[in-house]
Amino acid sequence: MIHQDILQRSMEKAQEVLDISFNLREAGVKADYLQRDDFWQQLVGEQGYMMFHPEVEADLVPEFRDVSKDDIHELEHVYNRLPYGRDQVAHLRFQVAQKLVESINTEHLLQNTVPNKVMSYIEAYCIAIHNDTAKEAKSYRSPKLSKLLVKLFGEKSETVKWYTTKCPKNLDSGLLKEWTITISILPHHIAGMSYYAAANHGGDKWIEGWNGTSCMDTKRNGIGSGVFQLVPSMRDVTMAVAYLSRSEDKDVWNPVYQARALLRVVHIHGEPHFLICRPYFTSRKTRHILIEGLKNAFPNAHYTGDMRSFDGEGVQFRVEYPKNIELEVDKEFVCPDCEGDGFMGYDQYNEPVDCETCHGEGRWHIDDSFLPYIDDHDFIIVNHDEIIFKLPVKYFASKGVDLNRPEKKPKRRFRFFNPLVGRSDVEPEPVQVEELVADIEDIRQELAVREAEVEMDAMEDWLRRAWAYVGADE
Length: 474
Ligand SMILES: [Zn+2]
Hints:
The strands form six sheets. Strands 1, 4, 5, 6, 7, 8 and 9 form a seven-stranded mixed beta sheet that branches. A three-stranded antiparallel beta sheet has the order 10-16-15. A two-stranded antiparallel ribbon has the order 2-3. It has 18 helices and 18 strands. Helix 4 packs antiparallel against helix 5. With 474 residues, it is of the alpha+beta class. The site of zinc ion has 8 residues, from loops.
């Protein structure tokens, strides 16, 4: 359990963060909080958070191989489809792509260079007798990897998209002491999941968020309705926050999130696993450090980005919330910028100018109910009383977890046969057994039942098991 004083201080801080939003403040939204799942409690202890330096391996090759797999298949397919003699160029293209995948290393990806082995292979073809092939090979001659990828796979291919937008351009490896990852269940870290984005505290913008942070930011989205989701998020017992900060910004009371991801714990066959949900980040490098740092530190951490590359069957795991965690809002808000008249003065032609905040409406109404914030709707569904995880079987199999394995201890039930309603399940309530026996005996005596030739065997089987159950110790 989080120490009472720390929790108290964090709740006050959470309220401050919520009150930054005009909507939340006007609606009188109070910060509240439900104690987290035991897994998080044990991990973070009395402090409510834990910190560590990320250890990151600079190995981009598996990701490159994974991303380019389909593009290479496509090249092979094209080459196989062409009639013999017309396939020289397609053959060369496929061969170069294969050589590239075999010989590329992380340095090549970081430095944007083509491996020497591939270069000499290409050179050999430049002097080929076949004109078209030589011409094609010459067009591959640039030592820049990005150029070769465009040539081989095309500008719109997944490989080129990944290389230009996702692959980090520089990467440190080993234990990175200048960076710190914090895992926290403290209320203010959850309420501030986007308010503490670097851009609000003198740093860089988050590049895949909204408006430099995200729509959960009480500062930049203060009149948005999305921010109401922060309160149910504080009640979501499965959720924790992971953030990356520079080690000099270690103050947990004034954090700066260079990258941030929500974490959610799910128990699979009694073992805790957690999902690293879609991250927000200032650069590809900070994203890489946060995600890889978490994955390296916790073998039971699963990044939704990795899970997404495995399709096929999924298995659902459900966590019941201890109470209804929904937040209801029904309120009329008067625009703070025009004080309700929707008017902002006159332009140079003496025409009235509408207030930008409320589009000249002067006020807005929010009548809605809100649930915790979810980034990965393909894996997580949330309701007022439960959260459901739909997990991909193949991905977990690759991590040695068999999702289809039956739960260890199925709830003890026994089947019984009632001639009037058929078979059904009954909770093992020993007190009921005698009543049921009497009931069945009555039914047995009824003429209609006898005439219908009810399955007496089944009934006797049931009686045998019912008596065995009464004799059994729980
Ligand atoms: Zn207005």
